[in-house]
Amino acid sequence: MSAAYDVIGSRAPRKDAPAKATGAAQYLEDLRFKDELAGALLQSPHAHALIKSIDTSKAKALPGVVEVITAEDVPRVKYGVSPARYDEDLFAVNKVRYVGDEIAAVAAEDMATALKAVSLIEIEYEPLPHMLTVEEATAEDAPWIHDEFPGNVCAEVHQEFGDVAAAFQECDLIQEGRFVSKRQDGGFIEPNQCVAVYGQDGMLTLHSSTQVPHYVQRTVSMVTGLPMAKVRVIKPYVGGGFGPKAAASPIDLASSFLAIRTGRPVRMAYTREQVFLFGRARHGFTHEMKIGVKKDGTLVALEHSATLDGGAYSSFGIATVYYSGSLLGGPYKLPNMKYDGRRIYTNKPACGAQRGHGAVIARALFEQQLDIIAEKLGIDQVELRLKNMMETGDVTCNDLAMSSLGMRQCIEAVADGSDWTKKKGTLPKGKGIGMACGFFVSGAGYPIYRSETFHCTVTIKADEDGGGVKVLTAAAEIGQGSDTTMAMIAAEGLGIPYDMVRIESGDTDFGIDLGAYSSRTTMMTGHATKEAAENLKDMILGELAQELGVERTRLDIKRGLVKIAGEPVDIMPLRVKYIKEHRGWETQPEGKELTFNEASRVAYLRRGTLVATGKYKPPVLGGKYKGAAVGTSTAYGCSAQVAEVSVDMETGQITVERITDAHDCGQAINLTSVEAQMEGSVGMGLGEALFEEVKFDSEGRIQNPSLGEYHIPTIVDMPPMSCIVVESDEPNGPFGAKEVGEGAIMPTIPAILNAVRDAIGIAIDETPLSPERIYMALKKAK
Amino acid sequence: MQKHILSLTVNGKEHQLLISPNKTLAQVLREDLGLTGTKQGCQVGDCGSCTVLLDGAPVNSCLVLGLQAEGREVLTIEGIAKGNRLHPLQESFVQAGAIQCGFCSPGMILSAKALLVKNQSPSEAEIRQGLSGNLCRCTGYQKIVEAVMDASHKMNGEVAS
Predict the structure, then answer these.
(1) How confident is the model at residue B1 (pLDDT cuts 50, 70, 90)?
(2) Under an 8 A CB cutoff, do B46 and A191 touch?
(3) Which of A332, A242, A403, A384 is nearest to A731 (CA)?
(4) Contacts of B99 in chain A (CB under 8 A)
(5) In angstroms, what is the C-alpha Rg of chain B?
(6) pLDDT of residue A664
(7) Do the chains contact at A720 and B142, CB–CB below 8 Å?
(8) What is d(CA A594, CA A564) in angstroms, rounded to the nearest whole number?
(9) Rounded Cα gap, residues A389 and B142, in angstroms
(10) Count of C-beta atoms within a 10 Å radius of residue A566
(11) Which residue ranges of chain A lie beneath pLDDT 70?
(12) Which of A679, A707, A723 has the CB atom closest to B135's CB atom?
């Protein structure tokens, strides 16, 4: 398919890679502003307590302290992620709800003084009983963490599609299972940081290491009361996000207030420990399910429930609890599905969104149960999946439309690639092979707040001299490669080489873009970029047609050259005009065809600077039921993976030896970037499967708030991976493209679980698969 | 706090600086010399982002006091390209797609450089061992291993010709 394109489908090197390889790329900590103040937060040492009094006088009196603010000094505006659950105050109002809850902020001449001032703020607490588990928080006499949410229930979901009770009556086999997972940390290598600058003109510019400049702008505007037009958010290079950076943080807001009050730039940064304290990463899930099938393996019904340990605030949690249910609608044909989900408030940092939002544990349990079903029915695990999988054109029982779905190609690719048939059932004890599938949205169908807004706008301006174009998007390049993707789409849309395209992004002054979350950027910003490129091309060719006196429809641009259909046209008058303009120091155009440079320059001479825009929002999508907005998307990516493991039968130590991974991303824009997303997804999934768990002591304090004690995969933990890119043609995607950033993580945990089960004969029902857990399971089985 | 004079060579250039004794080498490089290519991901020696070469050996510059570099040679990410010509490792990292967010890349490239000085033709396992002190959350490390392997081939080729 790629043959039809000149730029798309290639392995163009990333636009930002040379700057990142040489240390020239500037991240938040590398930007310096004149007269900066250092900001610091006072955070609660208690998991749950009333604040009886706050005395900031000693802190304010400390030389070098410029400003100290508490809840008294800022408007009482609740904020959060979902407008339906704005449950956060920037600074605690009478009460703290977790160890780390923000109480005050200080701005001082230097960080040592700011920290000293924080320690001088005197607070009288009255500790309250704290609830660190779902069980404690839902006990009958449990105090309420938020007065507005009785019983500590943050959100509840109840959905039924089809008639589940009746469907179970027709089943030959009913398989039941339960799975418990742990709170994860985002583990991005650059801790959150920001600098707020407030100018004499009343303009607040917030430089922030965020995934979502637009939502940060909106939240800062809402909480500070400044009009949107007076708040600009700029995202420099960002050292990873993965979900937890997808909303305004307390330091974004606190630095804004401090900058407004002091008139000086204020820098605030989380230490690594504060990254853990802020949380907002993967929830801990308890998932239960019952799956009904026919003797021949046909899936008939699914009844499942999830309980999410949410922490003290909602963050993305409403969407999370919906995703846990909705993303089991596929990629298998499943006519009847019932889901009950609850998210419970506990006195811990809030959980939020992380790669594979809400869906990875539901997927892990479901795929593990499918494996057991296959075994009970005597059907090969690959066959069972092929038998039930959806195909292009299918619609799930919860109205998710698979406008393209290369599920079969993915399954067959990993089965072949891993030599499944030869290995399955023949490996010695302690060695195992397992497979799993999954799918994910290509962008949420709706913005987080209710609005008719476009989800993104893009501007492309042609250089006045004709030599190239500049693309401006407000999208968030956070390492995933979106700038490169957009530059490639712009080049393809205009018909010019990739190196003629320059790009800047991540600035709310450049337009609107909802940001890097829900695997939306290639789909949505890609559409807007394509439209802008095509509009610019049309503009240039419209002028050229008049200049040449030919019909516009005869003209096109390919590989930087103007193609003229039909009768030959004398291009020399135009060429002479261009050469006269360029005074001889540049390479002169030669050859029989006009170049893009000539066309673009002549168009500029006729009408001035050429600027075109593009925009995108998804069409109205299916699903009229409550919660249909979570899970509906214009397209779905899908994946299959095979994991091969060895388990030390004495110590319980698991080694993942190889991963074979196939993902259908539609038309790949950049093959290298697609593989890179797949490999990174496997890494994060492997970490959650084997190592990662944020641990708390009995007082609600995090026990392992460092990258030494919280174990993300190192290079020696990762196996070789072979990544197979499956390219379907997605009718709703720009140039046929769809997501890869999150779909690729869906099968990783269950593929490993199934491989471990193959190796030791035990279905493990809790992550992480630590040596201790495996050892105990082996001991129990003896 | 009483400041002290620090003399050191960074990327081949000699410097004399007046610094507080509690400053880390990472802070000296970033704040006093403006070499912000050295990244700080944890400041406690866990992540390896701040890796620089001290007399040729990779160190977490957040765990070295600035004054410990007295009289020594430091190589940072800014010092390995020749003008506009990227070092073969930088070139391979760019070509292989081994860079995503890029925050770990400077440290990763310097650890790889130290490895390739000691071992010109490392095996895959030796590359993994050599980079085991550098965390990356984006890549799953696959393309990083490929990039180092590719660079070692290129560098050996250059030596041979």
Answers:
(1) confident
(2) no
(3) A403
(4) 14, 16-17, 20-21
(5) 16
(6) 98
(7) yes
(8) 9
(9) 30
(10) 9
(11) 1-3, 583-584
(12) A707
Read off the pLDDT band of B161 (50, 70, 90).
very low
Reported as a single tens digit per residue, the pLDDT across B29-56 is 999 999 999 999 999 999 999 999 999 9
DSSP classification of residue A572: H
Domain boundary among the residues B40, B59, B79 is at: B79
* pLDDT at B159 exceeding the cut of 60: no
Please compute, for residue A121, the number of CA atoms within 13 A of its CA located in the half-sphere on the CB side.
26
Cα–Cα distance measured from residue A668 to residue A172, given in angstroms and rounded to the nearest whole number = 42
Residue of B nearest to A192 (CA): B41
Q: Which residues of B touch A672 (CB under 8 A)?
A: 96-97, 143
Print the domain residue range for B25.
Answer: 4-79
Give the minimum alpha-carbon distance from B127 to chain A in angstroms, rounded to a whole number.
Answer: 9
Q: Which of A15, A189, A499, A709 should one mutate to test binding to chain B, selecting the residue with the greatest count of B CBs within 10 A?
A: A189
Residue linked to tokens 């991976």:
A721
A458: its two tokens: 């893009």
Question: Which residue in the set B81, B104, B132 is minimally distant from A22, CB to CB?
Answer: B81
Residue-range domains of chain A with CATH: 2-25+454-616 (3.30.365.10), 31-128+189-240+245-278 (3.90.1170.50), 284-392+401-446+623-781 (3.30.365.10)
B65 and B94, same domain (yes or no): no
**E strand intervals along A192-270:** 193-198, 204-208, 231-234, 266-269
pLDDT in tens, A737-755: 999 999 999 999 999 999 9
Which ipTM did the prediction report? 0.98
B118-134: average pLDDT: 98
What's the CATH number where B33 sits? 3.10.20.30
Chain A 34-63, CB below 8 Å of chain B: which residues?
none
Provide the number of structural domains found in chain B.
2
Q: Is A354 in the B-facing interface, judged by CB distances under 8 Å?
A: no
B71 and B14, same structural domain?
A: yes
The residue of chain B nearest to residue A238, with distances taken between CA atoms, is: B101
| pLDDT of the residue at A1 | 42
